[in-house]
Amino acid sequence: MGQWQGRTLFMTGGSRGIGREIALRFAREGANIVIAAKSDQPHARLPGTIHSVADEVRAAGGQALPLAVDARDEAQLVAAIARAVEHFGGIDVLVNNAGFLGVTPIAATSTKHYDLMHALNTRAPLITMRECLPHLAASRGQVLNLCPPINLDPGWLAAFAPYTSTKYGMTLLSLGFAGEARARGIGVRTLWPATLIATAAVGMTAGEAGLAAARKPEIMADAAFALLDQRERFGDEVSWLDETVLRVLGVEDFTRYANVPENAANIQRDFYIGTF
Predict the structure, then answer these.
(1) Whether 93 contacts 84, CB under 8 Å
(2) Could you list the active site residues?
(3) What is the arithmetic mean of pLDDT over 19-39?
(4) Residues 33 and 63: beta-carbon distance below 8 Å
(5) Structural domains in the chain, sorted by start
(6) Do residues 100 and 120 lie in contact, with contact meaning Cβ atoms separated by under 8 Å?
(7) Which residues of 18-33 are buried (b: 16+ CB within 10 A; e: fewer)?
């Protein structure tokens, strides 16, 4: 059994994609995984539920607590955190993975969709960081928020400002919480993919062409594990890209992460990486 045996990750989202891969990576090290996500029942077009991932976590060697949670609902988040502490005795890592991808400009963004983006991408992480704070202080734990480094290139801002503003809001909260929580022994990191990742959200927005130019979610899981497992190695820097994390470990060839192996040399960079 791995060195994470008995240590607990509380994750928002996680029924598929990057969150699922992070859960399974830590499960292989014996961790307890709390999967706090909305996907309680199978979806007609999207694979995975909190229960199917919980089964995979257990099969991989971890313990699982699947909780049906709508991250837009503060009461549900608060109750889920309390349930996790009651069940596993504490929280060692908070992973804010739930989110909503919207690629519309202001002119084409409804208030309803903006409220959804803000609720999941900015408001929910604030609530979870606040509510997990005493538990993370007790364990001298860590926070991992999946949000981008802030890039003020005008092209990125103009392309889909509503989404960008909510994800950058998450990054700003992370940078602020890193300073706020440091004195209590809590580490805070953000992680973002340097390239497109083959997830259901990317498939729905970029289609088969996007998936063919993407990397597998495993690259994010490997980077997340390294950041949290080798905490001291990465110093005080808060914002990281998956590629940069793995390069610190000595990885230079990312071919094995290509979603379509023959396209390994033609992987597309993700939002906010470089100029628009």
Answers:
(1) no
(2) 163
(3) 96
(4) yes
(5) 8-266 (3.40.50.720)
(6) yes
(7) bbbbbbbbbbbbbbbb
